[in-house]
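fyi for ur records
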Amino acid sequence: MMRAYTIVSMFMLTLLVTRVTSSQVNASCSWTEISEEYDYCGDSLMLGVPWVFPLKVCCDTIKLNKMKCICQNVTEMFSQNFDFNKLSKLSHACGDLLVPGSYCGVYKIPEGA
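which gave:
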């Protein structure tokens, strides 16, 4: 009987964690979050300049939401100032935040990146 109770408890905990995690992933980013990510990480994504390793504050900021705010706000305006190809480098430099094969904005993160 104790084993059945343990299995049910683990199942309920898994559902709770999944629900909390999925609600956070779908939450939209505030203007402050978006602004902070670009302020802290912009140098690493700049178009037309060599790759610059991100600052610790950049990585700390984007780790909070797995680059969600940057990825959700990749627009045509992004491509005028920032380099799409540097998104995977930024992810890798900060601890492989994006899953290979996933999309960040309109840019697909290559397998093995």
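The radius of gyration is 18 Å. thats all i got for now
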